[in-house]
Design goal:
The structure holds two protein chains of two kinds.
Chain A (H helix, E strand, L loop, with lengths): L1 H9 L3 H23 L4 H15 L10 H22 L6 H5 L11 H6 L3 H12 L4 H8 L3 H23 L1
Chain B lengths: L2 H12 L7 H23 L5 H6 L2 H24 L7 H24 L9 H24 L6 H20 L8 H26 L3
Helix pairs in contact in B: 2-6, 2-7, 4-5, 4-7, 5-8, 6-7, 6-8, 7-8
Classes of the chains: A mainly alpha, B mainly alpha.
Chain lengths: 169, 208
């Protein structure tokens, strides 16, 4: 089923691609739930996998089955997730990314640091941390999904903290 | 509608038609560093193919045979490693073949030939390998980041081998030394060192 949907999607069928992503999400969720349980991070991880599948769809050979490719990406994202969790616990939600200690970036020139981020991440942080919008409001403002906005903010904040640490050391 | 459904809607709007430039975007950085190294060494050094006039074609044939084989094999390995779900064991074993052949030729050479070692230009050779290998390695990393490697140490190792192979290919016409011991010590070992570095750096440089 996945193979037919992807073949149709590759031919330009947007509805088939949506159906493929929905089916992929279901299978990945079931697969990951067996490994990390149905905790609050499961859905975030599923979303990360979907974004990765979408961004790296050019690495799928048209004459090869989709499932091994998709499962390999899910497995990679799961290992990456465990690696990040092992190093520093993260919580990919509004509270975690909003709860940056007030003095973490106090001495830094925020605009200079934001200039070092990819534009999409910088824009997401400006809207949520400077303009004070929630992730939902920010995502609606620029027309992307809330999950995609959360990912942008999260990744941007991680990078921003690294940059601030580098500047401070 | 859940957040995941919203995300799926957003992603689906882009469609899944693969970009026409997937292969060129992988090949361009590799070709770019090959050209850069060839040009750089041509500007920096004189006397290309002087060893051919002195010693015949054997030396350059062996050096280029090894380095070009390794260059192509490592590029193919990177392409395979960059595609999730692809079996890459065969590609990795293939990468060892040029080294095995050099080892066999080294044994023969040590048995029958009297090579001068290390010769006069080993510092130049090491410098060329040391400068060009990281440059070409960066090109391989850029190319591989366009793909989706899931075994990052393995991808880093292949990128390191590519970097070393490019450096050797570019320098080989200017190398006046011959003998397998020289090639093993001043070419193969630096390539393996670059590969080891790639193995270590791969997880940092290739995360996606």
């Amino acid at each position: 089923m996945l193979d037919q949907l992807m073949a149709a999607a590759r031919a330009g069928d947007l509805a088939a691609y949506r159906q493929f992503l929905a089916e992929a999400a279901q299978r990945i969720r079931a697969r990951l739930a067996r490994k990390i349980g149905a905790d609050s991070e499961l859905e975030d991880l599923v979303q990360e996998c979907l974004i990765a599948i979408h961004e790296k769809r050019h690495t799928l050979d048209p004459d090869r089955p989709v499932a091994p490719w998709m499962n390999a990406i899910a497995q990679y994202k799961l290992i990456d997730h465990w690696r990040k969790r092992g190093r520093s616990p993260i919580d990919l939600d509004d509270e975690a990314d909003m709860a940056v200690p007030a003095d973490t970036l106090a001495k830094a020139d925020i605009e200079t640091l934001l200039g070092k981020l990819p534009p999409a991440q910088a824009e997401a942080i400006r809207m949520t941390h400077i303009e004070g919008l929630t992730n939902r409001e920010a995502s609606e403002k620029i027309g992307i999904g809330v999950s995609a906005m959360k990912l942008r903010v999260h990744r941007g904040m991680q990078r921003l903290k690294e940059l601030a640490d580098e500047d401070g050391s | 509608m859940s957040e995941t459904d919203n995300l799926i809607d957003q992603l689906a709007q882009d469609g899944a038609v693969p970009p026409a430039n997937a292969l060129p975007r992988f090949v361009m950085p590799l070709a770019g560093v090959i050209a850069l190294c060839a040009l750089g060494v041509a500007l920096a050094l004189d006397g290309a193919f002087a060893s051919v006039q002195q010693n015949g074609l054997n030396g350059i044939v062996v050096k280029w045979g090894f380095s070009l084989a390794l260059l192509l094999l490592s590029a193919f390995a990177l392409w395979a490693i960059g595609k999730p779900g692809t079996r890459t064991g065969g590609a990795m074993v293939a990468l060892a073949v040029p080294f095995a052949l050099v080892a066999a030729l080294l044994v023969l050479d040590l048995l029958v030939a009297e090579a001068i070692f290390p010769g006069e230009t080993w510092r130049e050779c090491l410098a060329a390998m040391g400068i060009m290998s990281p440059v070409a390695f960066v090109g391989a990393i850029v190319a591989t980041r366009w793909l989706a490697p899931t075994d990052l140490p393995r991808a880093g190792l292949a990128a390191g081998l590519f970097g070393g192979a490019v450096a050797m290919t570019a320098y080989a016409p200017y190398c006046t030394q011959h003998g397998m011991l020289y090639m093993a010590v001043f070419c193969c070992l630096p390539i393996l060192a670059m590969a080891a570095l790639g193995w270590l750096l791969g997880p940092r440089l290739l995360r996606w």
